[in-house]
Structure prediction request, 287 residues.
Amino acid sequence: MKRVARKHAESDNDPWEILRACGQPGLFITATDTNIGKTTVTAALAGAFTRLGVKVGICKAVASGCPRHRLRGSATSGDDDELFSPDAAIAAKMAGLDPTDTELLKFLSPIRFAAPVSPHVAARLERRRPNWRRLAEAIDYWRRHCELLLVEGAGGWLVPLDDDLFTVADMAVILALPVVVVSTASLGTLNHSWLTVESIRSRQLPLAGLVANRVRQPPDLIAATNLVEMPRLMRTPLLAALPETTMGRKGEIPASLVEALTPFAEQWWKNNGGSSAGKPRSLSLSG
Ligand SMILES: Nc1ncnc2c1ncn2[C@@H]1O[C@H](COP(=O)(O)OP(=O)(O)O)[C@@H](O)[C@H]1O
Ligand SMILES: [Mg+2]
Prediction:
């Protein structure tokens, strides 16, 4: 799908002008809906790649529903740095990164809004626009400081990110990373997943595949058949089926989820990881 020519209200904050392709190995994690498991899958992937010795970077590109940063409790004006993205923190920990490092935070979650609504509405309520330069800086930082970048979207695939109708899909098109679609195996998933897959393909973006999350153990008839039908109908791999499990306190990711994504991570890194694929590396972020 070609970019629809749209005039951006602020010519000095036009994401089409400011953002660039990632230009390094990475994955863009989207989902069929909000609350489906993007953060969980991003974090489990971070754990799986980190275990392989890959230096993983995390970017929750645009986050809404962010609580106030505890170190900036006295601040009153709305500003990205006054807020904190729990999603970025969950995934960062699994990549061995320190989510309390305030310098790192602006690269882990460059654009943050407080209101727990779609980012474009949150931006409107908070009377400020997403600062696309912050995302560009984050991508640039990770290009220099990681071997593989995991970018978590916001909500589902066609969520608007600003009032000029720039969507998650548009952002993924510019970043040009293969897309992982997190879905479920429950009733309704064939429709939701297929719509998302078609919309990704219509933008000529590479689709890494689907992850079915929160699959009841043992799978009931619906889950068992959907796990077979999803890859067959959509002609895309089912990268993993993650079980419904007990999550750790503070969003810690159980080892079973990391293990379920490890075969995909191993295969993917072998095929896409560049010259360092398979060689254990130090996790230090310096240099
Ligand atoms: N496999 C799972 N088993 C149990 N709970 C899960 C699982 N995956 C996600 N959750 C829970 O579901 C909720 C939404 O998941 P999350 O990863 O935050 O979704 P999203 O990032 O798409 O909004 C969270 O409370 C999370 O702990
Ligand atoms: Mg999330």
User: Anything to note?
Assistant: The chain has ten helices and eight strands. Confidence is low (pLDDT under 50) at residues 73-77, 278-287. The longest strand covers residues 207-215.
